[in-house]
Amino acid sequence: MTELDGTPAGADQLRPLALTNYGHFTSLRVEEDGRVRGLALHLERLARDCRAVFGTDLDTERVRGLVRRAVPAPPDGPVVVRVTVYDPALDLGRPAAPAAPRVLVTTRPAGPLSPPPLRLRTLPYVRDQAAVKHVGLFGALHARRAAQLRGADDALFTDRDGRVTEGPTWNVGFVDAADRVVWPEGDVLPGVTMALLRRLHPHTTGRVTPADVAGMRAAFATNTAVGVREIAAVDGTALTTGHPVVAALRAAYRDLPGDPL
Asked: What digits encode the pLDDT tens for the residues 51-66?
């Protein structure tokens, strides 16, 4: 399903995303009961980022209606919905022109929550405008490719100060020697799943470097599509899988009732 403002989108309308690639998005998981974990946070993100990217407000209730239109009720199975906000008329040479952002909704089948653990390779990378979930994914995907070419499943970013920050499309958390959840400090995309878990489980925020990872009991990645995913190794250093704190986080996230579209 690919709809722009509620009607099927053609090549001419999608071409600006490939050629200009200026916009922002959020991805949300709709379960079989039609409910979405953190729906209000996804809508808040879209409104916040629309002001940052286009300098204009976004009607989030209209967005909600467009998502509802694109998802069967009830869906045949879990669905990942991506809501992309962009202006097909935006000119590459004049991005400061008044914008009229439009809403593109695409859907795809969702995989299982908590897929197999990840093996990661640390790589230096800082996303442009880290607090905005924008469509400029080249740098992040290039890092993911580089990590995979070196035998890992994905990349784990470090910033200019040598701190571990996040992954290409997910946030990262750790369980320290005292069984505390530690979210690394630094400029990261404020993920919806991470925000929900912070509400559900005690945590702290602190500096984490690649050298610190060896002293951690466990680590996990979070995003909307997969929930809480274990991390099995970082730069060849093995981490515990099946840790009870990570299991508790996964269960708490899975059991969230969510909100109806």
From this structure: 999 999 999 999 999 9
